[in-house]
């Protein structure tokens, strides 16, 4: 037990601090369990059993099935219709966003659901003049709660079912807890549509353009190249490399023509107007040393940077857009410099927003984080590549021309068939889901190469690494010992109150570590506690499962929260202010619902 508690403690510290990626931590734990077999009871076969677990296989398959729905463009089309139909009523807007986000997340992964909701919300905000901050956080919360409608709603449910099958011989059926999930979702929607709407702040002012949203007014200016400037005759790329200042040229205007990326090979001429991204200190250095004059009364706007809308004749159809770094993106930890971002993506980064903080200085040196919002200037072709790149979420676009809309009935039919076959127990869930993958590829809903990009491999490795840890916690008696402590700590309390305490504790833990880690660690303890106090163990399994999908207190507690953190311009404490009352409300509703439906 001491060895197991030591491994758990190290894992928790690494999960919270993220000194290394959480999936790497999970694999390291798995290796440690096998190496320390005499003390952990986990041999090599058990150690790698997580890769063959029905939970891991099912989660992998559901990622690909969700990709089939995403590539069809179904949710985007519904979102566009909602934006058109309910764009004139704040109440209808909020309810439509909550309904679409929560309802859809019950059947496809909630991360792509929120990726679709971000541009939808921004479109509504642009058309109606409301703040996107008022809708993005509710959309994330609703997607989180909507995942509790079915077994396949989240990877957490599937993992909890696997643990429940091992401990109680009671895996979840497809719609085992749909009734309770619907009550929980409706409770969350009711709260967010009433009390919550007044608590959600308006961090981004309604109607602000991207230049204003990213506080660019003081960092964008125009400068005219004098005839005696040393820059004349040099290329912009060579000039930037030689300058020891934090500045970028984002647009070149010459003889009423606007040039944008790629600017590196462009030669500088006398009389050129350079649109610069820099701060006042670096600007003064440039003006003094490089033969530049500030353009009189220069004020750079969204319209000017959108070259196709500029007063001057555009050479390329540049636009100003916001993209969000996906929580599972491969570029996380890289810098704009190490990525060679400007050359690799043919786009200029003007600012980075991280939550409520906007970064303008030394951007090339800052490692990217999941949820970062980048203000970029790029051509429509480049923007299309960003829209198709799973590393990024394009925050200003609802539809793409390459959606396979003709496959919508096929993709939906395959997903319905997978769910029905599993629900009717014609096939087991892993087999049904894997059959769905074959059907998606054969019918052209998902291309073979897209299967691998669709899977969040960090989640797969996390599950595979954590499953043997749950086995070790049970086999070594660590779960029973913790249950003894829990029983002593709750002596005199009724089973219903103990159930509620487990819900609240799991919910708190989930806000700082992975929800899947919470399930693996807490379910064995919850089951042992229930047995010791003579309560229904399955009720305790459900309490932990539901609590693990209600990380509403912090932006880092759940991937969807992280995705809306920067686009909404939220402060870290905003999530606690809105989420704390909701967390308490859900604790009461969920505990009462479990007691009524399953008994304690």
UniProtKB/TrEMBL annotation:
Topology of the protein relative to the lipid bilayer: Multi-pass membrane protein
Domain RCK C-terminal: 208-292, 308-392
Location, primary (coarse class): membrane
Key words, A-Z: Membrane, Repeat, Transmembrane, Transmembrane helix, Transport
Gene3D superfamilies: Regulator of K+ conductance, C-terminal domain
Location within or outside the cell: Membrane
Parts of the chain that traverse the membrane: 44-65, 135-160, 172-193, 410-442, 454-473, 485-506, 512-531, 538-558, 578-598
Database matches in PROSITE patterns: RCK_C
A Pfam cross-reference name: CitMHS
Protein name (database record): SLC13 family permease
Species in which this protein is naturally found: Halorubrum ejinorense
